[in-house]
Each structure stands twice: as C-alpha cells, then as structure tokens.
Amino acid sequence: PLVRELAAAGAPVRVPAAVTCRVLGISRQAYYQWCAAPVCQRDFDDAHLINAALEIHADDPADGYRFIADELARRGFTASENRVWRICSMQKIFSLHARKKGRSRQAGPPVHDDLVRRDFTAAAPNTKWLTDITEHPTGEGKLYLCAVKDCYSNKIVGYSIASHMRASLAVSALRNAIALRDPHDVVVHSDRGAQFRSAAYQRLLRGHGLTGSMGRVGACGDNAAMESFFSLLQKNVLDTRRWRTREELRLAIVSWIETKYHRKRRQRALGKLTPVEFETIYTATSAA
Question: What domains can you pick out in the chain, each with its CATH number?
Fold first, then answer.
C-alpha cells in the first residue's frame, strides 16, 4: 500500500514505484504481482481451512490437529497433516489434552447455571439426570465410561464406553439415554468438562428440549450422586483385578451395570428395592 500511495498521481510528493521498491528492498515484480492479486489463492484456501478447523474444534475441543485433518478430509478439503498443524498452531487450536510447559489448564466457564444445587432427588422418572465420565487403565491403555443416571430410581439410563475422552463419548451416552427414555423437560446435570461444554453436546440438548445444568469448579459434591455410582463401580469391578484388554473391561462394566446394579443390588434409598423394581412399581402405580 505504501508503494501505491507514494506513486499515486495525487500524492503530495510523487515517488516512482521503482524507487520506493528499491528503498524498501522489494522487487518490482513482487509488487506488481501483489497489485494484480492482493490475496493469493493459498491465503484464500488457508482462510477456508481455518474456518472449518475452528468449527470442528468447537464441536469437540478434545480433537487435536490429526483428528481435525481427518475430519477436514472427510468434508472434502485437501490439506496435508503438516499444513493443518501449521494452521492450528497459528490459530492456537490445541487439543484439550495437549500438555504444554508452563500452561495450567482450568475448567472453562459454565454453559449453564447449577439447577440441581445438590438436590439429587426426583418425584418422577425422567425429570432430573446426572452425567459424568470416569476412566480406568488396562494393558492396552485407558478405557473411558460416560454414564447418565436418573435421580428418581438411580438407574443408569444411558452410557457409552470408548478408548478416548472426546465430546463424542458424552454425546453418545446422552443420545442412548434419549433413545431409551424419550424424555421431555429433563434437567441434565454435569460438571464443567469440555465434553459437556462442547457445541455438539449443547446442540443435542437443545434439539431434544433438555435443560442443561453445571456444578462449580472443583466441587465434587455438586455431582455427588454420580460420584457415588462410580465409587461402587470402582469397588465392584474396576479395582477387583488387572485388566489386560479394553474389551475385557468393557464387558465386565456392561455385565455389572445390567445384571448386578440394575437387577440385584438393593438400595436403602429406594426402600431396599433395586432400580428396576422401583421403576416397575412406579409404572404400575401411575398406570392404575
């Protein structure tokens, strides 16, 4: 712009473009190429890639540049992993789990207010749900479980198990609960994890008319009923032995939830009934 302004016909002191380019140390050829195309095709393509990468990362903050590169390819963009890495570094698009020296990660701002306020009771099914994520090591690496619990009967109405802790884990668990229960006007309470603040998770809540709720940072008591379930799972399954494979642990978790916890473990809070028995009585009473 400076070269063009000094060479303009109306400039107070007109300086030829060749002189200005020589003083600034740039070639005339580069200047005239810039005049013909101020924004090159490469920059234009990078801008489109950046917008797409930001959108992908907003859907799942746990995605690093490799996952973003795979998703860009799925959407029809042509870009190498090195190029995606350069763009992500330039725009500071980092995975939630990336560890950088000198950086301390804190939970982000809540997307929702705390509507539960440590009241983990409900007068009817499908009015108040709790959700959280736990992990456990195996010989193949960590296995992650996201579960959704109904405060009325303490039943696990949906869960998802995977080898990663991306937003899709929480989305899958909530989607399973929705498919099983077909809820309306349910409060879904969680912590401030990035999985629950992700755009994909929030879209799922809004799309099914569910109301989000979030506890405070570092306050485990704000989701104590969910932590209680994970404590039971840890004592009865996770810590009972060393698990060689993820599949072995996955089958053990599913078996314990569906057979022992739901159908055999009686709870004093439910009048010494199991979650399945408690909900069966409610269904029969409401039908009558």
Answer: 2-36 (no CATH), 56-90 (no CATH), 128-287 (3.30.420.10)
